[in-house]
Inverse folding.
């Protein structure tokens, strides 16, 4: 930003020595995807200028917080005069307001361009926000400079607002411990002992930003919060588990990446188990291997420590994702959970039958029990029992539910 632009901002603010409350900025900038569109860029930017100004005035002109807008080259900055208060709350409010409008504007502008032009318009709207306290020690222009710089940094990528809202949702979930555990029964197939154990699964009460656990854990990994989320899920799984029956197991999902973390310790899990009159002998750590294991040495070392305390190990998703024979050979689990992609319609698919047969043979030689996942048909259940699978799990045998409602 040059001196001339800074002076323009000072003139627009008009409050150089009367700073109070907070300055809120919504930043918008339209980016073309391909350099080949550069000849038409000026034309599209003119359309965008007219569209954006009209929409901004229409959306905010009646609000007492709205103080105007300013173009700087092709970047639009919408100025909001926000009250005093906690900056974090003001940022959250402005972020939600800006996201609601900019997502709608982006789609409407694209739809309009497609209707008017024969060639598709490939562009993305970059948007960011900033809230800066109007410190009395700063001039109006200096406050503007800080706010605009912050908004530009926030809007560097096209998905900045959505990512920020997801991060806020994740932080709130962790702070308020907003995870609900449900439990799906695992049934014995080779004797009449009935329910062998339960797999603890995670559910979220609010699906605004995360459709399910996979999306939630995937985003937590991107944000470096996998460990915190995994720990909360384990704690909730144990908290919600009413006393297990004699010899029954509680299967708890643990991501392979967590096992590789030197800071991961089962000590906290042990403390929780003792509070519920459970022991490590009741718990099976179920390693989800949808992503590859980078360091088998670290995972194996961790597993040796867990096993010494009485925990058992299962490998989930066998036959799907990155799951491989190497994981079975290296980690020597107590249980293999064969993925639904193999079990579904196994009674009609000779190749799937061959795969399960091979896994059962390998498991038998290694002293491993096999759990067939995703059972939804009586014919599937009959087939895996006939083939010698030890246990089964799926909607046919019981849907995930709170422990208190399992009957």
């Amino acid at each position: 930003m040059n001196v001339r632009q800074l002076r323009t901002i000072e003139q627009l603010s008009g409050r150089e020595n009367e700073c109070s409350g907070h300055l809120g900025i919504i930043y918008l900038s339209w980016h073309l995807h391909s350099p080949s569109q550069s000849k038409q860029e000026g034309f599209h930017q003119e359309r965008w200028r007219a569209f954006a100004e009209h929409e901004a005035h229409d959306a905010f002109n009646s609000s007492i917080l709205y103080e105007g807008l300013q173009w700087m080259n092709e970047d639009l900055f919408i100025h909001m005069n926000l009250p005093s208060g906690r900056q974090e709350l003001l940022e959250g409010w402005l972020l939600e307001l800006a996201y609601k409008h900019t997502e709608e504007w982006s789609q409407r502008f694209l739809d309009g361009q497609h209707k008017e032009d024969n060639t598709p318009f490939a562009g993305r709207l970059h948007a960011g926000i900033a809230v800066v306290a109007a410190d009395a020690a700063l001039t109006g222009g200096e406050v503007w400079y800080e706010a605009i710089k912050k908004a530009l940094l926030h809007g560097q990528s096209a998905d900045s607002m959505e990512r920020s809202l997801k991060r806020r949702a994740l932080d709130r979930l962790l702070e308020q411990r907003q995870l609900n555990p449900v439990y799906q029964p695992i049934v014995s197939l080779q004797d009449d002992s009935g329910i062998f154990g339960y797999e603890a699964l995670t559910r979220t009460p609010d699906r605004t930003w995360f459709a399910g656990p996979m999306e939630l854990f995937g985003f937590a990994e991107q944000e470096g919060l996998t460990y915190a989320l995994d720990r909360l899920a384990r704690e909730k799984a144990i908290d919600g588990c009413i006393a297990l029956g004699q010899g029954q197991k509680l299967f708890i999902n643990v991501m392979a990446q967590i096992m590789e973390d030197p800071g991961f310790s089962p000590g906290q899990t042990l403390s929780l188990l003792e509070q519920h009159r459970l022991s490590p002998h009741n718990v099976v750590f179920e390693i989800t291997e949808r992503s590859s294991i980078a360091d088998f040495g670290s995972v194996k070392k961790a597993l040796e420590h867990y096993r010494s305390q009485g925990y058992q190990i299962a490998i989930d998703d066998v036959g799907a994702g990155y799951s491989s024979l190497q994981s079975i050979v290296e980690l020597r689990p107590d249980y293999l959970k064969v993925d639904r992609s193999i079990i579904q319609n196994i009674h009609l698919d000779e190749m799937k039958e061959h795969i399960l047969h091979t896994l059962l043979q390998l498991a038998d030689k290694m002293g491993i029990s096999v759990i067939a996942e995703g059972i939804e048909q009586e014919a599937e259940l009959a087939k895996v029992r006939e083939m010698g699978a030890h246990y089964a799990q799926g909607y046919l045998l019981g849907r995930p539910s709170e422990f208190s409602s399992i009957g």
User: Anything to note?
Assistant: Residues 87-116 form the longest helix (30 residues). The first strand starts at residue 22 and ends at 32. The chain has two domains: 3-158, 178-405.
